Amino acid sequence: MRADLHVHTHHSTVNRTLPFLRSRDCYSRPFDVYLTAKSRGMDLVAITDHDSIDGALELLEQLPDSRDVIVGEEVSCWFPDTDIEVHLGVYGMTEALHRNIQPVRTTRSEPTTVAYRSASATNPGMSQTRRAIFVVLCRPGT
Fold this sequence. Notes:
The chain has one domain (3-138). A hairpin with a 6-residue loop joins strand 3 (69-78) and strand 4 (85-91). It has helices at residues 30-39, 54-62, 95-105, 119-122; strands spanning 3-7, 44-47, 69-78, 85-91, 113-118, 133-138. It is globular and about 40 Å long. The chain is α/β, with parallel strands linked by helices. The chain starts with a strand and ends with a strand.
C-alpha cells in the first residue's frame, strides 16, 4: 500500500520561514491535491495542512464515502520556554481533537508532553483505511 502522509492545500497557514513573502506551502485546492496524489499511484492521501484540518474536511465534503483520505494536520508547537518550533504530524484528526489541542499548542510557557495513541483505540468505528497513529499534545498529568 502506498500513502502520501504529508501534503498541503491552500488551507495551510502562511509559511513562517520567509514571512515577508507571505507565501504558503501550497496554493492548490484539496480535490486537486488528492487527484495529483492518486495519479501518482497513492492508495491513501493524508491532507496535513499547517494548523488546520479545513482542507481535509473540504475534501471529505466532496468525497463523503471516501475510504482513502486521512484527516491529518501538521501542528506547530514549541519546546517549553524557547522559540524552538517543531511540526508534529497528527493523523486520524477530528474536529474535537483539533479544537482541544489549540490552547496547548499555543502555550509556550507550560511544559508539554507528547503521547502517542492508536486512533482505533479511541475511535473503534473508524474505518480500517483511516486507522493511523496520531499525536496528542497534553499537559503533564492529563
